[in-house]
Amino acid sequence: MTSSHLTDCGLPGIRHIPYGVHMCNFYRTREELVGALVPFFVAGLRNNERCIWITAQPLPAVQALAEIEKAFPEARAAIASAALVVRDYADWYAQAGALRGNQVVDLWLAEENRALAGGYAGLRITGNVTFLRPEEWDLFMEYEDLVNKAFQGRRIVTLCTYHLDSCGAAEMFDVVRRHNGALERPDKGWQVLTSG
């Protein structure tokens, strides 16, 4: 049993994470991405959290849903009840339109309010950012800063995923310093490397 400010991470080696945490993960392959995100979301669904998965290559929404169904057969029912939302980044950001970083953060906070009003324990979200173009990097890092500050103390847990091929050392530093910690899987178990 966890205390009310903690939730199950879902990844072997990491038992509980606090609500309000904003984590990142760097992956090399589609399989590594699946290995991080599927258990992360299954834990959220089992903890009665509303889960929103914003997908991008190499794991578009249709494939992401197929992967989560393998581990959580009730995934289609969770989709039908809106406990689980799996959307491609283009669909989600089309909804956000031309909103600026703080307005997108406000959308996430509204989703948290909707989740809590619906009887969920909290909100669990992730976004895979392979869609970013180099000229968008600085603006997206400003958004990550806003997310990191805005989600503190909220009933939200966030895991942002970055493909290693699109990140050099400078970009990795940019990402890590804008998150509370980075998830790493050195061998058999996962661990959280803190940025501070």
Summarize this entry quickly.
By secondary structure, the protein is an alpha/beta fold. The protein is 41% helix and 24% strand.
Label the CATH architecture. Answer: 3-Layer(aba) Sandwich
- Approximate strand percentage: 15-25%
Biggest beta sheet summary: 7 strands, mixed
CATH class: Alpha Beta
> What is the assigned CATH homologous superfamily?
P-loop containing nucleotide triphosphate hydrolases
Q: State the helical fraction.
A: 40-55%
Number of domains: 1
H/E element order: EEEHEHHEHHEHEHEE
Shape: globular
Compute the separation of the termini in Å. Answer: 28 Å
Briefly note the CATH topology name.
Rossmann fold
What structural category do the secondary elements indicate?
A: alpha/beta
Rg for CA atoms: 15 Å
The side-by-side strand order for the widest beta sheet comes to 5-4-6-7-3-8-9
Uncertain ranges? none
**Separate helix tally:** 7
Structural notes for this entry:
The chain has a single domain, classed as P-loop containing nucleotide triphosphate hydrolases (Rossmann fold, 3-Layer(aba) Sandwich), CATH 3.40.50. The protein is built from 7 helices and 9 strands. It has helices at 30-46, 61-71, 75-80, 89-96, 101-117, 137-150, 169-176, and strands at residues 6-8, 16-18, 22-27, 49-55, 84-88, 122-128, 156-163, 181-184, 191-194. The strands form 2 sheets. Strands 5-4-6-7-3-8-9 form a 7-stranded mixed β-sheet. A two-stranded antiparallel sheet has the order 1-2. Helix 1 (30-46) packs across helix 2 (61-71) and helix 5 (101-117) runs parallel beside helix 6 (137-150). The longest helix is centred in the N-terminal third of the chain and has 17 residues, at 30-46. It is globular and about 40 Å long. The two termini are 28 Å apart.
